[in-house]
């Protein structure tokens, strides 16, 4: 099975980083967040990726062009023009990088890579700026079991601010970052039939609008509930929080060895 990852947006809310590189290339623990997402999929047996590039897509292409060097120990003998590899630890990935335009919306990007998915029974689809410990294998199993065209991972939104506990106007305690009102939201980890691509009109179509609304109206979208870790990286504060989790050695999304 293939995984399609959206990696072309401008990332304006984290412009402190994205003026230099596309959002999926912002590093967590010295590796792009895109790498972390791919490692999650790979840990569940998904090793073929289609990356939808856009804004500063050349940075992503250059990263993968040199991926072997990034992940290996090497000696360069300049006099002999030779390279000796001491340790090979590159991943077993097949990565297709497609320029889907700088201003194309999420649905339009998916439509632009449709030719790489037509022969698939189903494929994974996600955003390139969020981390989770969602069980991809179970998500795929759930999708194949219900027979509908699409599956969305439903998650609890993370709390952004601490809350006050009060009795009248008196503060009686504090709740650190409550997880919202209990409602579930789109967590961004999808499994889709290629037939879903036919619902996308063109470049200006957000995946989250007409295509998902149409699937819901037809009863063709099912929710896989994930109650574990899920965190988008929309702001510098969230980037730093993910960095701290990684540095602690207890990053919930790191399920690989």
Annotation, overall tally of beta strands: 15
Alpha-carbon Rg, integer: 20 Å
For the largest sheet, list the strands in their spatial order. Answer: 7-4-1-8-13-10-14
Write down the secondary-structure element order: EHEEHEHHEEEHEEHEEEEHEEH
Low-confidence regions: none
Secondary-structure class:
alpha/beta
Give the helix tally. Answer: 8
Instruction: Give the rounded overall mean pLDDT.
Output: 90
Estimated share of beta-strand residues = 25-35%
Describe the 3D structure:
Helices cover 26% and strands 29% of the residues. It is built from eight helices and 15 strands. The strands form five sheets. The protein has a seven-stranded mixed sheet with strand order 7-4-1-8-13-10-14, sandwiched between helices. Strands 2-3 form a two-stranded antiparallel ribbon. Strands 5-6 form a two-stranded antiparallel ribbon.
What's a quick, concise take on this entry?
The chain has 257 residues and is of the alpha/beta class. It has helices at 15-18, 33-43, 57-65, 67-70, 106-112, 136-146, 210-217, 236-247; strands at residues 2-7, 27-28, 31-32, 48-53, 73-77, 82-87, 94-99, 123-127, 130-132, 150-155, 163-167, 170-175, 185-192, 221-226, 230-232.
Quickly list its features.
257 residues; alpha/beta; seven-stranded mixed beta sheet; two-stranded antiparallel sheet; 8 helices
Give the secondary structure arrangement, pairings included.
Elements: E1 2-7, H1 15-18, E2 27-28, E3 31-32, H2 33-43, E4 48-53, H3 57-65, H4 67-70, E5 73-77, E6 82-87, E7 94-99, H5 106-112, E8 123-127, E9 130-132, H6 136-146, E10 150-155, E11 163-167, E12 170-175, E13 185-192, H7 210-217, E14 221-226, E15 230-232, H8 236-247
Parallel strand pairs: 1-4, 1-8, 4-7, 10-14
Antiparallel strand pairs: 2-3, 5-6, 8-13, 9-15, 10-13, 11-12
């Amino acid at each position: 099975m293939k995984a399609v990852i959206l990696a072309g947006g401008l990332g304006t809310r984290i412009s402190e980083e994205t003026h230099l590189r596309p959002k999926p290339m912002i590093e967590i623990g010295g590796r792009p967040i895109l790498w972390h997402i791919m490692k999650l999929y790979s840990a569940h047996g998904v090793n073929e990726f289609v990356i939808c590039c856009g804004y500063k897509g050349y940075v992503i292409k250059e990263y993968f062009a040199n991926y072997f060097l990034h992940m290996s120990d090497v000696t360069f003998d300049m006099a002999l023009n030779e390279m000796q590899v001491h340790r090979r630890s590159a991943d077993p990935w097949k990565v297709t990088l497609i320029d889907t335009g700088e201003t194309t919306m999420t649905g339009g990007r998916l439509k632009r890579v449709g030719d790489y998915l037509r022969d698939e029974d189903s494929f994974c689809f996600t955003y390139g700026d969020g981390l989770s410990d969602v069980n991809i294998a179970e998500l795929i199993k759930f999708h194949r079991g219900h027979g509908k065209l699409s599956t969305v991972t439903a998650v609890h939104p993370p709390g952004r601010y601490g809350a006050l506990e009060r009795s009248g106007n008196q503060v009686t305690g504090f709740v650190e970052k409550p997880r919202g009102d209990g409602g579930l939201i789109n967590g961004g980890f999808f499994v889709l039939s290629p037939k879903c691509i036919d619902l996308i009109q063109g470049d200006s179509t957000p995946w989250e609008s007409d295509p998902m609304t149409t699937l819901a109206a037809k009863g063709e979208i099912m929710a896989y509930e994930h109650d574990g870790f899920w965190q988008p990286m929309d702001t510098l504060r969230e980037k730093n929080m993910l960095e701290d989790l990684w540095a602690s050695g207890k990053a919930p999304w790191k399920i690989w060895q």
